[in-house]
Amino acid sequence: MKKTGVILFLLLALSWSAALAGQEVLVVQSMRVKPYESAFAGLKAGFPTRLHRLVLEESGPEQVLEKIRGIRPDVIVAIGGNALHALKPIHSIPIVYTMVLNPEQIAAPAGNVRGVSMRIPPQKQLSALLDVLPGISRIGLLYDPAHNGTFVSEAAAAAERTGLDLVARELRHAADAPAMIMDLKGKIDVFWMLPDKTVATPATIEFLLLFSLESHVPLFTFSEKYVEVGAFMSMDIDPYDMGLQAGEMARSIRSGDAGKHSGQEFARKAVVATNLMIARKIGLTPSLASLPGATLETRVFRQIQIVN
């Protein structure tokens, strides 16, 4: 019985390898969730041949690595942070990542690792915010230096160039967030919520939404889901286009033109969403010139915006 099982395993492994014979690009995806599926759809759209995919939550890291070592693809595309983390032992095959929030904390860009950052340049975010709220001058935020120290430094420089005052407060313990948010009352025109694990906890987000309504301070955030529950505006990445962008990097590597792309590129598109009913509740009159077709009766308005 054991011998039969071993033979069956070998037959399956051989058939899998045969199916991928000559396959140059392999996709490793963390899990089957909508944003990752959208990124994979974008990636597929940029390739004329069928891509083969391994889903980490279905195969497991060791099985994925075993299959990669047997196949030896020319390029691996990692979709999601867990996928990139699972590929850390791979040093001899080029890896392109996408949909990874803090890739430098997993695998710093090196000779074989490059990809598309989920970060939208702070200058682009501030410019979009000023397009909609041209009268603001003071923007507050909380951040954990361990997660967003570099980004906030870049944001401070961008704010200075734009003529804005960035009121940034370091937060190292989530429990301290409510008191620090209240300390900003009367000192800021907008609160900028970053994708920061220490700051963006469920309890803090709920507190921020109440703070925004009660203090009439609009909340500018990184995900449309928060706009749907009470934030004023978000600027989020477009997963489908991030897949396309990662595909362009993978194709360049396959064609021998890896130098065409840097170690890490910013996402080139963003989705801007505004909740104009919230704007009315907190007494805002946003500039609608940059939001064609929007009216104050529109609850959430979405707009694709080029940011590169």
Question: What would a concise description of this structure say?
Answer:
The protein is α/β, with parallel strands linked by helices and 308 residues long. Helix content is 41%, strand content 21%.
Describe how the helices and strands are arranged:
Blueprint: H1 2-19, E1 25-29, H2 34-45, E2 52-55, H3 56-59, H4 61-71, E3 75-79, H5 81-86, E4 95-100, E5 113-117, H6 122-132, E6 138-143, H7 145-162, E7 165-170, H8 177-183, E8 190-192, H9 202-215, E9 219-221, H10 224-227, E10 233-237, H11 239-254, E11 264-266, E12 269-275, H12 276-281, E13 300-306
Q: Give the C-alpha Rg.
A: 22 Å
Q: Would you report the number of β strands?
A: 13
Ends distance: 60 Å
What is the string of SSEs from the N terminus onward?
A: HEHEHHEHEEHEHEHEHEHEHEEHE
Give the overall pLDDT as a whole number.
Answer: 85
Task: Provide the descriptors you would attach to this structure in a database record.
308 residues, alpha/beta, Rossmann fold, 2 domains, 7-stranded mixed beta sheet, 6-stranded parallel beta sheet, 12 helices, 41% helix, disordered C terminus
